[in-house]
């Protein structure tokens, strides 16, 4: 009986691994360095992400993509694969390997955005206008650099009139037809599954820790599982033997469609898009929503189970009106509310958290739509992406927003690490938009999103002492650069948060205690 239970434990332990982010212990978030160059990511791992406890980086698709010229080099050209060669505007294979090695060496792991449902758009023409110069022909579905040919696409399996997905209530169309005309791979074929697995195993061999599965909703869960079952365990140079890649699948499920996030639980975690959409509505106080309702945030709001969720406030699509979430999504453009939303996400125990790090683009709303939603990363006249420069005040230059470097956000990434494993506790609210909660005996946070002052004594659950508020400042040596909070012997502290404060929320934790 003993041996059997041990064996079962082993099996459960191993097959559970793909839900585990494979971050170093005590590192509880990843950052999406959207469109960053590999050389800049390597530097950021060493100089900023490791020292501040980030667990990893989600990178933009590293495989060769179409070069789109109309509009000029849009960010979304990287979601139109031409081959699985590791060369893009972010860098070549040498630079990719250097990034993975240097980041892993400082305990910051790499998560690859894997675009494996499709190749380029059906109208992307022919030739070698691709980031590695490979020849391809969209019209004849010829991708010799993989190789893929017409046999490897879903054409005859799709039953829609146009060949594109026309109806999201027809689950076969969603999987077997073209997403916005992108040539749809026949993932029921072992040949295609093997080519995709070969690409992902090449990345695993280099040292990556896991994958964002792009457009997962558009692949049959079983086909995706067949690909994942071909994947190797992670490279033992940085990971213990038998570690499986972390898998989180992009499945946009806001409800109302037959395809659900839970259809994909067998493969790994899923992106919970309801999270950012709802949190944006609450923090904006739309539709009568108020922060007091966040008392049962998480599964209580109909989200997937916490250990199946990858959560975020905004992502690269919905921060610019693509994908899902609509107008309620908060982004760096709404800085004050955005910091509150990210602060709340990082303090709350639900889900595995991803912080967005964006580039600035010239938004231009015409009839309520941003006609510049396509604009690609900051680049030079020759099309090369501009490096990330760091200013004296630690912000980024060259139009890189670097939200992950904003003091309030960076400090909340650290807060999440400090309180890891601690229960959601000591909830208080004023029935409106003033709320507070703790994480066991390690951390406590207070929000004032009402139009009047918050002035109240609360049970924090923390040990007595003087704490630095890590939102208005931080602990430097033995002083606080911002506000201080005094917790008395019974765990009670007085909080005064003006509704006119630059950031109307306060966060304290035991590693920011004088
Ligand atoms: C358009 C028309 C087509 C037409 C075609 C003719 O929509 O009907 O046939 O022109 O050429 C770009 C253009 C889009 C164009 C398409 C093909 O924006 O107008 O089709 O190319 O030429 C990103 C962008 C898309 C972009 C795509 C490919 O968001 O705008 O399309 O890259 O370049 C659903 C999915 C979800 C998806 C989300 C956006 O369920 O999985 O839509 N999200 C992921 C990524 C996203 C990416 C893709 C999927 C595709 O997060 O960034 O789309 O890989 O909700
Ligand atoms: Ca598909």
Automatic annotation (TrEMBL):
What SUPFAM superfamilies does the entry give? (Trans)glycosidases, Glycosyl hydrolase domain
Write the record's keywords in alphabetical order, separated by commas. Calcium, Carbohydrate metabolism, Chloride, Disulfide bond, Glycosidase, Hydrolase, Metal-binding, Signal
The record's annotation in Pfam families points to: Alpha-amylase, Alpha-amylase_C
Coiled-coil annotated residue ranges, if any: none
EC number(s) on record?
Answer: 3.2.1.1
Molecular function (GO) terms listed? Answer: alpha-amylase activity; metal ion binding
- Class of this enzyme: hydrolase
Biological process according to GO: carbohydrate metabolic process
Tell me where on the tree of life, at the top rank, the source sits: Eukaryota
Q: Where is the Glycosyl hydrolase family 13 catalytic domain?
A: 28-416
What does it catalyze? Endohydrolysis of (1->4)-alpha-D-glucosidic linkages in polysaccharides containing three or more (1->4)-alpha-linked D-glucose units
Domain (Alpha-amylase C-terminal): residue spans on this chain = 425-513
- Does the keyword Nucleus feature in the UniProt annotation? no
Residues in the signal sequence: 1-17
Q: Which cofactor does it need?
A: chloride; Ca(2+)
UniProt-listed InterPro entries:
A-amylase/branching_C, A-amylase_C, Alpha_amylase, GH, GH13_cat_dom, Glyco_hydro_b
The similarity annotation says: Belongs to the glycosyl hydrolase 13 family.
Q: Which PANTHER family match?
A: ALPHA-AMYLASE (PTHR43447)
User: By what name is this protein known?
Assistant: Alpha-amylase
